[in-house]
Design goal:
117 residues; two-stranded antiparallel ribbon; single chain; mainly beta
Length: 117
């Protein structure tokens, strides 16, 4: 759960599923570099959710309804700096709405589409 970017969204939060936790040792050699020492950067690889617009919202005291972005969307996966994460949250699946892929054929092995997640 993160604060939304200020790109015109009227919803205060963004949601993502963490697919991996990584770190990279970086040596920056560009303009304004101070030294040639290695610095560790920690980040998350995530699959983004989108807010379902027809949900009732906080005014009716109903939790946000979210769904994964479509795989065809170029922004489906991304990287997040750990300092931007507000907190972990538990997403309650809506099994009554059925499976996204009832035939069990998934588009992404990494995203675990066929596992109903």
């Amino acid at each position: 759960m993160l604060l939304s970017n200020s790109d015109g969204k009227d919803h205060p939060f963004s949601y993502a599923r963490v697919l991996g936790i990584f770190h990279a040792n970086i040596i920056y050699t560009g303009p304004r570099s101070k030294d040639f020492l290695s610095h560790q950067i920690k980040f998350l690889w995530v699959r983004w959710f989108e807010i379902v617009q027809d949900c009732l919202g906080w005014e009716q005291h109903v939790p946000d309804t979210i769904k994964f972005l479509l795989m065809a969307n170029e922004d489906t996966f991304g990287f997040v700096d750990l300092v931007n994460v507000l907190r972990a949250c538990h997403v309650i699946p809506s099994f009554a709405d059925g499976q996204l892929h009832p035939d069990g054929i998934a588009m992404s092995h990494c995203a675990n589409d066929s596992n109903g997640r």
